[in-house]
Amino acid sequence: MYNSTINFTIRIAVDNDIESIYQIWLEGVGNSFDTNSFNEIEVSQKFKDNFQKRKGIFNFWVAVDTNDKILGWQSLIKTSNNPFRENIYAESSTYIAKDNRYKGVGKALLEF
Prior knowledge:
Number of strands: 4
Strand order of the largest sheet: 1-2-3-4
Distance between the termini: 11 Å
Low-confidence stretches: none
Mean pLDDT: 91
Helix content: 25-40%
């Protein structure tokens, strides 16, 4: 399956997870996007709006250690509002906290 060097489980995200999820996202988003000139308040609100819209398969999952600390997360976010496509297409994102990269967390989240 995966070669984990830490003990963790995967669960569906709950409302209280948003701040940790957002902080992990901020740690990693600079790898894919230019974050030098973004409006952090606006970006934070849009991110949290996506989190609040989670439902069913369009959701967030978190990998947590034995103390329930979030090590990383995976999401599927709707990408269409078209009535014929709204429940079909999603954007997948996976972010792992810096200290937990290369330990099997991302692979486990994707397989989950």
